[in-house]
Each structure stands twice: as C-alpha cells, then as structure tokens.
Amino acid sequence: MKIDNVDFFYLAMPKITTDADGSQDALLVRVQAGSHVGWGECEASPLACIASYVCPMSHGACRPVAESVLGQPLNDPSDIARIRAAVQFNSMDLLQAAHTFSGIEIALWDALGKRLGEPVYRLLGYKSDAPKLAYASQLFGNTPAETEAKAKAAREAGFRAVKFGWVNYGRGSVADDAAHIEAARAGMGSEAEVLIDAGQIFAQDVEAAAKRLPALERFGVLWLEEPFLADALAAYGALADRSRKVGMAGGEGCHSAPMALNLIDFGKVGFIQIDAGRIGGLGPAKEVADHAVAKGVTFVNHTFTSHLALSASIQPYAGLADHRIAEYPFAPSALARDLTVNHIMPDKDGMIRLPDGPGLAMTVNTAALRPYLKDVEIAVAGRTLFRSSALPV
Amino acid sequence: MKIDNVDFFYLAMPKITTDADGSQDALLVRVQAGSHVGWGECEASPLACIASYVCPMSHGACRPVAESVLGQPLNDPSDIARIRAAVQFNSMDLLQAAHTFSGIEIALWDALGKRLGEPVYRLLGYKSDAPKLAYASQLFGNTPAETEAKAKAAREAGFRAVKFGWVNYGRGSVADDAAHIEAARAGMGSEAEVLIDAGQIFAQDVEAAAKRLPALERFGVLWLEEPFLADALAAYGALADRSRKVGMAGGEGCHSAPMALNLIDFGKVGFIQIDAGRIGGLGPAKEVADHAVAKGVTFVNHTFTSHLALSASIQPYAGLADHRIAEYPFAPSALARDLTVNHIMPDKDGMIRLPDGPGLAMTVNTAALRPYLKDVEIAVAGRTLFRSSALPV
Questions:
Q1: Which residue of A100, A170, A245, B246 pairs with A201 in a disulfide if CB–CB is 3.0 to 4.6 A?
Q2: pLDDT at B392
Q3: Torsion of CA A314, A315, A317, A319, to 10 degrees
Q4: B47/A233 Cβ within 8 A
Q5: For residue A392, what pLDDT is reported?
Q6: Which residues from A are below 8 Å from B22, CB to CB?
C-alpha cells in the first residue's frame, strides 16, 4: 500500500490556561494507506506543526514535511525508516519538522500494524510486552498540604508511584521545595516511588539545583527530572557527578535520537524519558531504548496527554521487562480522556499493560472529539495550503 | 522605549528549486519600538516561523513567541536577555520558537543600537571590529571542471578563501569527491584557504566520512564542515579524533547556545559556525563566541543569504581579531542582493569590515522588495491570527 492521505485535527479545550498541563490541546494525525487507517499524535503546537507540513519549500534542505511522506509506499518497517531519513534530510532546516513528523510516524506504525495484524511492539522487534509500574504524573500542589492531598489521592487510586512537577518548584526557597518533597513522601507512604520534575527551572544553574539534592535524598526520591534546559549537557553531567543517590532524568525535549543519546553519553542521565510525539516517532524512540539498554540506563516514556499517546510511547520499550516504570497521566483534560474509546487502566498492583490488538490497539473516539475541533486555514500568496478536514463519522 | 510592533515579511524568488541555496527566500522582521525601527532576518521557514509567532497557546510552556515579546521594555541589553529567557521558558515546547525569535532578537539589537547610537558589536562588549577574511561560499559544481571554474571565478573576484559544499559530495565514490577537492585547490591556487561542506550527508556514518579525510589532507583543506547530523556529537568527536590536519566544523543547525557548546565540548569541533538567524539571535551567538575563545576553538559566522544577515552574523565575534575567517555569500539570489541598499564588499586583499554606524548599519531596501512579498493569512476557529502587512514606502 502507499500513503494516500494525511490529515491533521487540531483539538482544544474551550479554555487554555498557563498551567504546565500539556493535555489542554492535541494534534491528532490520521494516515490513510490503502484500506488501512492509522492514528498518531504530535505532542506539540498544533498550528506550528500544520504549517510545517504544508509550508512552501524554502530550498532543497527546507522542504515541507508533506513532500517526504505523501505517496510513499508503506509495506514494512523499512519503509517508515526510509521516510524518516527523507524527512531528516529534506527538512533539515525546518526546525518544527521533527514534532510534525512524530505524529505522522506513529500513525504509519499504527496503519502498518493493522495491515500486518501485529501489535507495533512486535514490528519494533519485541516478542511480547512486559507489565509496567504506572506512576501517577501530576503537577505539584500550590502548598505542601495540597501536594500531600494529591499524593494520597494517587495512592488511594491504586498507584504505587507518583511524580510531582512544575508549579512553584525551584522558584522559592530550598526549604519550601523540601516541604513539598516531604509532603509527597508523607502522602504516598514509605514504600512508593516518588519522582520529582523540575521543569527546566534551573536553566543551567548547577548550584541552584544541587541545593535541592539533600531533601530529595532524605525522602528517597528516585529521580530529579529536567533540572536544566533540554540540551544543557554540561550542567546535567555536573549535577549527576554530585548526586550520590538520586538519578538524573530527562529527555522529553529531545527531537532526535542523537539528542537523546547525547543526554545518556554526555549528560549522564540515569533515566531517559522519550516522548514519541516529539522525538520523531517510534523508530527514533526504539533507537534510544536500544542505546539505553547498552549503557545501563533506564528508558521511560514521557506522556502527559491521551491514551493514544500513552500506547504509542510505551511501544518502543514494551519488551524491556527491566525498564519497569511508566509515566501515566493522572489527571488529564476531558479532551485527553475523550480522545480514545478504550483506555489503559492500572490493575490492583498499579501495573499497566498495552492493549491487545494490531497497531496501537486504540480506538479514536471521533464522535466525541467533534466539539473540540478547531478549524484552521492557511493561505500563502492567495493559495490555500491547508483547510481542516471534518472528523470522520 | 517598549516593543510596540513586530512585523514579518515573507519574501521569495519567483521560482524555488531544490538546490541547497538558502537565499531563495527570506523572512524579514521589523521591530518598532518608540521612534526606532530595527530589522532582522530568520534563516528559517517563513511560514513555520510566522505560525509560531501567532499560534494559540497550548499550555504554559508552549506559548506563541509574540506573548514574550510584545509590549516589553527595550532600553538596554539586559532587556533583550530577559525577553530571550522568557521565550526560552514560555515556548519551551514550541520547537520552531528559536528560529522565529532569532530574527526578532536581531531586530531588537538593531533598534537598540540605533537608539543608543552604537554599533551592535559595542553593545555586545567589543571595543572595535576587526577585519575578516571573506571566504566565497558556494555550492560545488556538478563536475570537477565546473568546481574548478567556480574556484577560479572566486579567485578572480579577489577572494583568498573559498568554500564548496553539497551537490554530489558524499553521494558518489571517494575518488569522485577527491577529484572535486583537487579541482577546488587547482582553481584557487596553493595559497588560498579551501573549505569543504558535506551538508550532513554522512548522517552518523563515521567510516564513510573518514574515507574522505586523506584527500582533504592532501589538498590542504582547512576544515570539513557538517559531515554529520547537527546533534550527532559522538560521530563528530570520533571523526575529530581520527583527523590529523583537517579541523571539524559545524554548528549552523544549532538552535540554542548550549547546543553549540556541546559541539565544542563533546563534538570536538575546531570551528564553530553560528547562524544568528537560527540560534536565537546575537545574545546566544555571543555566548558561543565567549566559550569558543575559552576553549581555543575558532568562531565563524554562518551566512548564505543577505547582507543584513551578514552584518548580524558577524557582530557576535566582530572584536575577535584571531577569529579571522568569515563566510561570505558569493552567489546569492537577486532577492538576497536586493534586500539591502548597502553591501559589505571585500577589499583588494579579500578582507571585509562591518559597515560603520549604529545598530547593524544596514539599510533595508523596502521598495526593491515589493515584488518578492508573499501574502500570508492564518486563521484558527474563524479568527484571523496573521495577515501580512504591506512593506513600508
């Protein structure tokens, strides 16, 4: 079969706030190839991604993403690798291209899996999928008491691991931050895994981040995530050298496999967190997982949005039983929940499994998404380059 | 003064080809602040950049670039640094933001320089500008004879350094490539500097690139540029370790200062090439120049387009007399030539100096640009987010 059509659906909640909640909008991608349909999602700015798909060519190394995708054959995984290499070269100078292609690439695997009757993780080379310990990923409370209440709620919902991030962490005093860590541990109990996400707040300031290490150690935090800018490798490495017990985690900002490999090789992270909706899809994510295995680093998905994105982001390390922890969006928006008919639910031990079935094995709930759809129209020099399609019935 | 207005002008040649000639279109940026006007240029996809400036917010860390810029005070260099930090944080998940902001940031320095009556390089901390040896930057010929003729033309035009890149280099045999290097050296004579740009053709294949080193050494090539993907640090470092005489050069793909620092610290490049129109502007470029000085690496501008971009990209290392070589677009498009009234011309020794005057000291030729202007219109949910302004009379 060949790639006949690629559609983008820009979905958004009625009101978007400045909260660091990435589930407030979504860019859903549908690929049609012969009689098969695949779905994917870009974890990125919908409008910027759509513009990168349709933009006029600037020169040979700055072409729209569409040019490397439409009409290409899609019969086995090597076709996806070839398309990815074409995007990489033809859109070298189009920075947004990696985010745009991510959702397309995921949809290509979904369509191919459906055609071949195989789950995506098998096409990626795994024989089976291993259960993952879901960690309830959420934002810090505004006060330690709120953080503790959120931790308790996660524990009561059956989670045995929790992550708190963003909000005021790193913005106030070291003692303020420590109080939130203590609250998170108190709420979760002594057995659970507690993870902390600094949301790049320290930019490149190693000293500021290092001052937070004692509290993280005292309350047995497994990792400190994104203390620095996504590519501040020297800062990552310096903090890793100074941390005795708490691992460094990062990688959600990676928009290529080499960028993630750099975080492992030079940034010395212990946990590499990959968002398949940003790194360019499942192929590059699997490359990172292979490298993580080789280097003794733990691969983790990055997912804060829908269960379509969750299924996609787990596939690249589905078969790695020792890479056991998985990010699970604990309080996503109504849009993110409504995006799929089926959902990935933790069992009584807080473990999750991929759904059973070909492709990503998720059913997009197109009827439920209609109220969230935003029309987009882009014209250059009087020619319409993009006009939103209707969601299928 | 404060930033009252930011306008984008999408300019393009009537016909865009797949040649690796980045001067075929341009995204010109005008900033109005009080009674001052500054101009800059994004070396990037115009449509994707415009979309990133106006896109609806996705969440707190994925906001449109406009939100961190419009209305901000602009009275001294620290204001530009503050705006840059705001874009970095507020648009963390908007990949294209760095390219979009680059042209704005350059225009902010231009406006501020005009207000303060100072050339930008003085605002960046240099007392004076040093002359640079202009290298004629052009694409390889299709045959060695064409490459030799191009080299002769550059020499006859007074250039004492030349760079050839792209086209068939790395696509055919090692002997084919060597014939082009020999031709370039023959055309330029034994005294001139010859530089070679592989245009990322080897992706991450260190062996393929290493096979080209003997010919580069034999014909006294100063540097091999971009053998690999922009962030393939391990490959860069491995090839640098294997090259005895030819330096590695790279960096035009850097869209942040840390990314360029990584190329120096971990990729072991000898020449760090920064495009101010991609890295986020002159502030981050100056940070890279400072790091290059500290690490004994040579800073070089990356410029293949207009003389507005050329002036901008030289400012960050204008005062570094020992960093003596500068990229000079040898055969830019008519659009790139027409973009400014004044031009930076090599003297009889092939040396260039920055123009004298406040800001970037370049006069944009708005009247000449009118035929190149492309109207853009972007609407989301029925609301027009962007409609092109007319070029000023």
A1: A170
A2: 87
A3: 120
A4: no
A5: 87
A6: 58-59, 61-62, 93
| Chain B residue with the nearest C-alpha to that of A226 | B92
The residue of chain A with its CA nearest to that of B90 is A18
Whether B16 and A203 lie within 8 Å, measured CB to CB? no
Are residues B231 and B198 in contact, defined by beta-carbon separation less than 8 angstroms? no
Distance CA A275, CA A304 (A): 9
B149 Cα to chain A: minimum distance (Å): 23
The amino acid occupying position B279 is: I
Of A10, A255, A382, the CB nearest to B95: A255
The most distant pair of C-alpha atoms in chain A lies apart, rounded to whole Å, by: 63
User: Is the separation of the CB atoms in A54 and A386 below 8 Å?
Assistant: yes
DSSP 8-state assignment for residue B389: P
CB contact under 8 A, A262 and B262: yes
Contact A56 B50 (CB under 8 A): no
Residue A271: pLDDT band (50, 70, 90) is very high
CA B43/CA B275 separation, integer angstroms: 8
> What is the count of residue pairs from A and B with beta carbons less than 8 Å apart?
231
Nearest CA in chain A to B27: A58
Residues of A in contact with B43 (CB under 8 A): 93
Of A50, A59, A96, the CB nearest to B19: A59
* Of residues B54, B231, B374, nearest to A258 (C-beta): B231
B202 to chain A: closest CA residue: A89
Write down the mean pLDDT value for chain A: 97
Nearest CA distance, B189 vs chain A (angstrom): 31
- Report the complex ipTM: 0.97
Give yes or no for a contact between A22 and B94, defined as CB atoms under 8 angstroms apart: no
pLDDT tens digits for range B298-356: 999 999 999 999 999 999 999 999 999 999 999 999 999 999 999 999 999 999 999 99
* Alpha helix stretches (DSSP H) within B243-361: 257-265, 282-295, 307-314, 334-338
Rounded-to-integer distance, Cα B180 and Cα B142, Å: 9
Q: Which residue of B has its CA nearest to A92?
A: B253
Query: What percent of chain A clears pLDDT 70, i.e. is strictly above it?
Result: 100
pLDDT of residue B379: 98
pLDDT digits (tens, 9 = 90+) for A117-171: 999 999 999 999 999 999 999 999 999 999 999 999 999 999 999 999 999 999 9
Spatial neighbors of A110 by CB under 8 A, at least 6 apart, are A31, A38, A39, A40, A120, A312, A359, A360
Q: Please, are residues B180 and B215 in contact by the beta-carbon 8 Å criterion? A: no
In 3D space, the residue among B312, B393, B336 whose CA is nearest the CA of residue B27 turns out to be B336
CB contact under 8 A, A61 and B199: yes
Give the residues across from A10 on adjacent strands: A27, A374
| Residue range A62-80, pLDDT digits in tens | 999 999 999 999 999 999 9
Residues A9, B75: Cα–Cα separation, whole Å: 42
Residues of chain B with pLDDT under 70: none
How far is residue A63's CA from residue A61's CA, in Å, rounded to a whole number? 6
- Hey, what amino acid is at A384? T
How many C-beta neighbours within 10 Å does residue A182 have? Answer: 16
**pLDDT tens across A166-188, in order?**
999 999 999 999 999 999 999 99
| Sequence letter at residue B114 | K
Q: According to the model, what pLDDT value does residue B120 have?
A: 98
Q: Is A353's pLDDT higher than 90?
A: yes
Q: Which helix (H) or strand (E) holds A25?
A: strand A25-33
Phi-psi region of A158 (alpha: psi -120 to 50; beta: other; left: phi over 0): left
Contact B69, B106 (CB under 8 A): no
The radius of gyration of chain A's CA atoms, rounded to the nearest angstrom, is 20
- Name the residue among B47, B229, B253 with its Cβ closest to that of A51: B47
pLDDT of A120 reads: 98
Residue B258 in tokens: 């840390």
